């Protein structure tokens, strides 16, 4: 996770707590592709908002674009 976050093209360092990292793993279900997707979306949001870093609050408030279970049903 740290190497993924360190390689995001943001101007400021990420500010995440252990709780945030657990939340990312929980949301992504431990699936690497899902982790990359989530971090990418958080980074895009950080750039568009002008924050230029991923915060604990951004992780806590992040919602997937669609419900994966509903999509597979």
What's the structural blueprint in terms of helices and strands?
Layout: H1 2-6, H2 18-28, H3 32-49, H4 56-61, H5 68-72
Helix pairs in contact: 2-3
Judging from the principal axes of the Cα atoms, what is the shape? globular
Biggest pleated-sheet summary: none
Q: What integer value in Å does the Rg equal?
A: 12 Å
What order do the SSEs take from the amino end to the carboxyl end, as H and E? HHHHH
Give the uncertain stretches in residue-range form.
none
Account of the 3D structure:
This protein is mainly α. Helix content is 62%, strand content 0%. It has helices spanning 2-6, 18-28, 32-49, 56-61, 68-72. The chain is globular and about 30 Å long. 16% of the residues are buried.
Task: Supply the key terms.
73 residues; mainly alpha; 5 helices; 0% strand
